[in-house]
Design a protein that fits this description.
seven-stranded mixed β-sheet; 2 domains; single chain; 286 residues; alpha+beta; Rossmann fold
Length: 286
């Protein structure tokens, strides 16, 4: 193992919860290198936890162990698992949909249920409300430190049984319209990150500099419709103007130059938020 341990939660840093997880991990092995992915996932937002893992995981060395705890079902019969990805990373998490983006975009080769008879913090008693500390941080630290092997986590679970969140795939229709969803926000800057891959977008014959009609809807209600340019960078639009661009994950993004698109139009994320992109109709003046 690489001895790298990366933590993600919706706990925030206003109390001692994250620090307790650090303490458990360091108690297993003081030489572990522990980093924070984020602890600002919106409370109970499994979708965003899934995406942030996908956004980050490939840039870490093989063997890195990730912990993701966004767990509205803590204490229920949902499983606690460790997944091994095709890129040889490990994710310790509740089986509640957190693995959705990893499974669909990167691939998972094996999943094991955490055997709490072996992999649970000693003297943690009958507490069932802080699995992030008592089960996930403890198991992840033991795995990252080489105290246990992946096989010693627990029994193997069929990949088909892993819980996935509902997620319709983007597509290009016969009229040349690209359909997708607003997957996540570039939170600090308010840009929209879609699930539309650059290659799918370019199949529509679109080139940099083209004018495109962009429609955004939440379920059946249209929230936004306008024409904007497909640019290489934010500098390809004037201050305050919208544009389409390719983000750092090679997917389509929507932004306002030096402004927050999400705040301006009150746009959120998830499977109900759709985006449709087509070439802007040509206006003929008589």
């Amino acid at each position: 193992m690489s001895k790298n341990l990366v933590l993600q939660t919706d706990f925030g840093l206003c109390d001692g919860a994250v620090s307790a997880m650090f303490g458990v991990a360091i108690s297993v092995d003081p030489e572990l290198r522990i980093s924070n992915l984020t602890h600002e996932i919106p409370q109970f937002n499994i979708w965003e936890a899934s995406y942030r893992l996908y956004q980050t995981i490939s840039y870490w060395p093989e063997g890195t162990v990730f912990v993701s705890v966004v767990d509205p079902g803590v204490g229920t019969d949902r499983l606690s698992v460790v997944a091994k990805t095709k890129e040889n990373h490990y994710i310790v998490t509740p089986d509640n949909g957190t693995l959705t983006h990893i499974k669909q975009n990167i691939g998972i080769v094996e999943v094991r249920e955490i055997d709490e008879n072996v992999n649970r913090l000693p003297k943690s008693g009958d507490s069932y409300t802080f699995h992030g500390r008592d089960v996930y941080a403890y198991t992840a630290a033991r795995l990252a430190a080489g105290v246990i092997s992946f096989e010693e986590v627990g029994r193997e679970i069929p990949l088909k049984d892993v819980v996935e969140l509902e997620h319709e795939q983007p597509y290009l229709d016969e009229q040349g319209v690209v359909h997708g969803h607003i997957d996540i926000l570039d939170v600090r800057f308010g840009n929209l990150w879609t699930d539309i891959e650059r290659e799918l977008f370019l199949k529509a014959g679109i080139s940099y500099g083209d004018a495109l009609e962009v429609s955004i809807s939440n379920n059946t209600q249209q929230v936004y419709k306008n024409i904007m340019t497909f640019g290489r960078s934010f500098a390809d639009s004037n201050f305050g103007e919208p544009l389409l661009y390719v983000n750092s994950l090679d997917k389509l993004g929507v932004a306002i130059n030096q402004g927050s698109f999400a705040n301006a139009y009150r746009i959120e994320t998830g499977s109900s938020w759709r985006i449709d992109v087509r070439r802007a109709p040509k206006v003929i003046y008589s």
